[in-house]
Amino acid sequence: DTGVSQDPRHKITKRGQNVTFRCDPISEHNRLYWYRQTLGQGPEFLTYFQNEAQLEKSRLLSDRFSAERPKGSFSTLEIQRTEQGDSAMYLCASSATASGGYTFGSGTRLTVV
Amino acid sequence: GQNIDQPTEMTATEGAIVQINCTYQTSGFNGLFWYQQHAGEAPTFLSYNVLDGLEEKGRFSSFLSRSKGYSYLLLKELQMKDSASYLCAVSLSGGYQKVTFGIGTKLQVIP
Q1: Local structure of B56: helix, strand or coil
Q2: What's B8's DSSP letter?
Q3: C-beta separation of B92 from B29 below 8 A
Q4: Extended strands (E) in A1-113
Q5: Cβ atoms A55, A47 nearer than 8 A
Q6: With the CA atoms of B62, B64, B70 and B73 taken in that order, what torsion angle do they form, in degrees rounded to the nearest 10?
Q7: Stretch among A13-17, A60-64, B78-82, B84-88 having the lowest mean pLDDT
């Protein structure tokens, strides 16, 4: 078990471009979460999957954001028409149970220029 | 909604003890997590309290009072490597027990 993997670690993109991030959770974890974190803030919830079903999506997410977990394993987070305000660390986490602690990936740091 | 309050910054001396407080107001509280996050890295799980009382895990202990909406993280025998942000996070009852994070307390350990 190699933990939660995220790819890429860093992404610099021009405003208006689309970006996609990938998360590979711990294999036996059926719960997967995406959070966003800006400097000096705690992680903010974006969306939650249980297996392949997206059960909750934050109102923080505009329609430019979409996430998928097609086979209940890895997940992707896509941001369309990026804006400078999208610059942040995007964290993926997984857990086996509702009360278990999350295991976070190392995150993808997005910089929109 | 949920409201989680914790100090933004603290400084403590190597070898000392520090207590990081967290208060919360939520609708439907289930439990409280503490995470450690070093600069530029992902948060790592420290503790999870559901019942009132103190839970000790090595140099770290976490306390919860559900009736007061209050928790603290106690770090003993501070080491320089303990310099990090400490995130208080609340899980809500019902559904999948959504976790909401506070802004974190940045702890600086000085020699």
Answers
A1: strand
A2: S
A3: yes
A4: 5-7, 10-13, 19-24, 31-37, 44-50, 53-57, 65-68, 75-79, 88-95, 103-104, 108-112
A5: no
A6: 0
A7: A60-64
CB B1 within 8 A of CB B90: no
pLDDT at B27 over 90: no
Task: List all residues 6 or more positions away from B104 whose beta carbon is below 8 Å from its beta carbon.
Answer: A40, A41, A42, B6, B8, B37, B85, B86, B87, B88
Contacts of B41 in chain A (CB under 8 A): 106
Q: Does the pLDDT of residue A98 top 70, yes or no?
A: no
> Is A38 in the B-facing interface, judged by CB distances under 8 Å?
no
Compute the nearest-CA separation of B104 from chain A (Å): 6
Instruction: Choose from A104, A106, A108 for mutation: most chain B CBs within 10 A.
Output: A104
Under a CB-based contact definition with an 8 Å cutoff, are residues A91 and A105 in contact?
yes
B101/A44 touch (CB, cutoff 8 Å), yes or no: yes
Name which of B48, B98, B102 is nearest A45 (Cβ-Cβ).
B98
pLDDT in tens, B62-101: 999 999 999 999 999 999 999 999 999 999 877 677 889 9
Establish if A104 touches chain B: CB-CB under 8 angstroms: yes
Contacts with B102 from chain A: Cβ below 8 Å? 42
